[in-house]
Write a structure and sequence with these properties.
By secondary structure, the chain is an all-alpha fold. Helix content is 88%, strand content 0%. The protein is elongated and about 55 Å long.
């Protein structure tokens, strides 16, 4: 269960880092994508009996959640910039 909490903390960290521009977007995206895939794969390895299935779904689920989080954070960051420019 600890890997699932680390996965959630990773997504939250990516969101905050993008919104507050704590690092370049490419660096945040690469690090966040890698860590979310890693934590989801480790979580699934503790739950699933077939390691290949856990690795495959860990990559897919981790990537989908990371891309979604990055997209949402970027969208709200852009909207905040538009509001500030007016």
């Amino acid at each position: 269960m600890i890997y699932f909490f680390l996965f959630g903390i990773c997504l939250l960290g990516m969101y905050v880092a993008v919104r507050r521009q704590l690092a370049p977007l490419g660096f945040i995206a690469a690090g966040g994508m890698f860590s979310s895939i890693l934590f989801m794969t480790l979580f699934l390895l503790t739950r699933v009996d077939v390691p290949v299935q856990a690795i495959l779904f860990g990559i897919i689920i981790g990537a989908v959640f990371a891309i979604s989080t990055l997209g949402i954070a970027w969208y709200f960051h852009q909207q905040e910039n538009k509001t500030a420019q007016k």
